[in-house]
Design brief:
exonuclease; five-stranded antiparallel beta sheet; OB fold (Dihydrolipoamide Acetyltransferase, E2P); cytoplasm; five-stranded mixed beta sheet; 25 strands; 32% helix; RNA binding; Arc Repressor Mutant, subunit A
């Protein structure tokens, strides 16, 4: 039916018809009239046609009518993101007086009035069903000053006082009035951290675990044996963790020695979260929904309950923990010449921190009581890290050195006391290098077996973006040669090196960063441009990233259980969901 309709509507002589006239033109019998109306409504829902109030059917594109989403509201206008039928997206400015009470995230039908301006014809679907509001002068005021509706409360039996902040659930939209219930009193506007909590809730990020899930988690920990029999015992090895001073979810540990062949033997031992979080159990479903842990100024919103993230899965000092180990033999040039990936259990011999390890490397005072054996291993790690950095740069690694701020927050008042620059010392760099190498090794191991997997991919920048970057760099007298369509990452490396430790370094690094694509998760490997890796995944942080948990699960399935049946649809969906959750977390952390 839809195909017949489109053939008629796309005829040159077609202008407008009523449903009855269309039925006559297509010789549709009375019995099939309901099917005709159903097809017309479906085409309107897709944005292909537009049915006027007097019942005439038009091709939407002929009237410049589109379906879009309100993505931003400003003082005088809103921005609507529109997708046309040829799948091209563009943005339309809509004056506030033409919004028809549409709000952010609403799906609307709009009509272009000028080249990039338009008006809302109707609100197709509201997507906002919760609000953060403050009770002030006997009324509830939304924390978004552009919120257009008057708020009416249904459950008026809840006692409130001026200054209280609440989460309201929208029960009904009624033209310029919304009818709401008070779902939860969050606190008072003067309470420490109430502003951050409000932003968390507005973002849609799950921030609390249900009692049911916590009880389930407790039972798993109590009833799940350690299962050491089928694992390699590494408890006698010198294995340590190196993290920030305030880190509690320790999911990676490292070891290093020189083997009998005179090569480095690097062990990267990662918490075996997949042993406790099996596919589609309650914890896994919640972890999928969250996608990642989120680190805010005064709190962490964990992907997993603390019983796991800070407890049984965390590689705490002097405690036996289940791990998956990636042990790599590395030559003097930084090449991995042999590796092994296997289930293991460890007992960390040291909970080291970046600050102390950096002090040790700089021959400055430090707090941790290092043994002589531990010191020897750490300096050996520094040497290997230096070799790996050189190797990575040869492969095309972009060392952008973007300056990041770190907020120091008072634990009691939740107020920001000061802002410091986040510094990457040698200790941070060696952990980064070792984790990258383990991620590459695991990714390569699965990729060359041609098994379904989830990759961390970073497509190369388009020629258009590179031309834009070249023009921007030219304005600050930095040259980026682009000859035809040929471009090599080494050109970017040369530029970065030429401005290193100059007043241009920060701006050049940021310009290059803005020209690059965003890294995402995908079942298709296209390499990682920024790291110079031909194949890459995320294996090293299963406590705080869902893709890493999946990688562990597939490693267990393929390598340890020798099972190869995979739900490809789920894998594709999980990769996309993980990318969406990551973007949501980044947006909230920036907020």
């Amino acid at each position: 039916m839809e195909e017949k309709l489109l053939q008629l509507l796309n005829q040159k002589e077609y202008t407008k018809m009523t449903p009855s006239e269309i039925a006559k033109a297509l010789q549709i019998k009375d019995d099939d009239f309901k099917l005709l109306m159903k097809s017309l409504n479906a085409l309107e829902d897709k944005g292909i046609i537009y049915i006027t109030k007097n019942g005439y059917i038009h091709l939407a594109k002929n009237l410049k009518i589109y379906i879009g989403e309100i993505i931003q509201i400003r003082k005088y206008y809103a921005i609507c993101k529109v997708s046309s039928m040829d799948e091209k997206t563009f943005e339309v400015e809509i004056p506030i007086e033409e919004l028809q009470f549409a709000y952010k995230n609403d799906i609307v039908r709009i009509q272009l009035t000028h080249q990039n301006k338009g008006k809302v014809l109707e609100i197709i679907r509201h997507n906002r069903w919760e609000l953060i509001c403050e009770y002030k002068n006997r009324q509830w005021i939304c924390d978004d000053k552009f919120f257009p509706y008057e708020i009416k409360i249904i459950n008026r039996n809840i006692k409130v006082v001026d200054g209280q902040i609440a989460l309201l659930t929208i029960k009904k939209y009624d033209h310029f009035i919304i009818h709401c219930e008070i779902k939860k009193i969050l606190g008072h506007r003067n309470d420490p951290g109430i502003d951050i909590l409000s932003e968390v809730i507005k973002s849609g990020v799950p921030y609390e675990f249900s009692d049911k899930l916590l009880d389930y988690c407790q039972k798993i920990i109590q009833n799940k044996p350690l299962d050491l029999d089928r694992r390699v015992d590494l408890t006698n090895q010198l294995i340590v963790t190196i993290d920030g001073l305030d880190a509690k979810d320790l999911d990676d540990a490292i070891s290093l020695k020189i083997n009998d062949h005179g090569n480095y033997e690097l062990g990267v031992h990662i918490a075996d979260v997949s042993y406790y979080v099996s596919a589609k159990n309650l914890i896994d479903q919640e972890a999928y929904r969250r996608g990642t842990s989120i680190y805010l100024a005064d709190r962490v919103i964990p992907m997993l309950p603390h019983l796991l993230s800070n407890g049984i899965c965390s590689l705490n000092e002097n405690e036996i923990r289940l791990t998956i180990s990636c042990v790599m033999e590395i030559d003097a040039e930084g090449n991995v010449i042999h590796y092994d990936i296997f289930p293991s259990y460890i007992c960390s011999k040291g909970r080291l921190n970046y600050q102390d390890v950096n002090a040790l490397f700089a021959h400055q005072p430090y707090q941790y009581p290092y043994s002589s054996e531990m010191k020897e291993m750490l300096f050996l790690m520094r040497n290997l890290s230096s070799i790996l950095t050189k190797k990575m740069l040869q492969n095309g690694y972009l060392d952008l050195d973007i300056k990041e701020a770190k907020l120091i927050v008072n634990e009691n008042t939740h107020q920001v006391e000061r802002i410091e620059q986040r510094i990457q010392g040698e200790a941070e760099k060696l952990i980064e290098n070792f984790m990258i190498l383990a991620n590459e090794t695991v990714a390569s191991h699965i990729y060359y077996q041609q098994l379904p997997f989830i990759y961390r991919v970073h497509p190369a920048p388009t020629l258009e973006k590179l031309m834009g970057l070249s023009a921007s760099l030219k304005e600050i007298n930095v040259q980026l040669p682009i000859k035809g369509k040929k471009f090599h990452v080494k050109e970017l490396q040369k530029i970065l090196e030429s401005v290193r430790k100059t007043d241009k370094e920060d701006i050049v690094s940021n310009l290059i960063l803005r020209s690059l694509n965003k890294a995402i998760y995908s079942v298709e490997n296209v390499g990682h441009f920024g790291l110079g890796s031909s194949v890459y995944t995320h294996f090293t942080s299963p406590i705080r990233r869902y893709p890493d948990l999946l990688v562990h699960r597939y490693l267990r399935q393929y390598e340890f259980c020798h099972q190869y049946d995979v739900d490809l649809d789920f894998l594709v969906m999980a990769a996309e969901n993980s990318s969406v959750c990551e973007r949501r977390a980044i947006a909230l952390e920036r907020e």
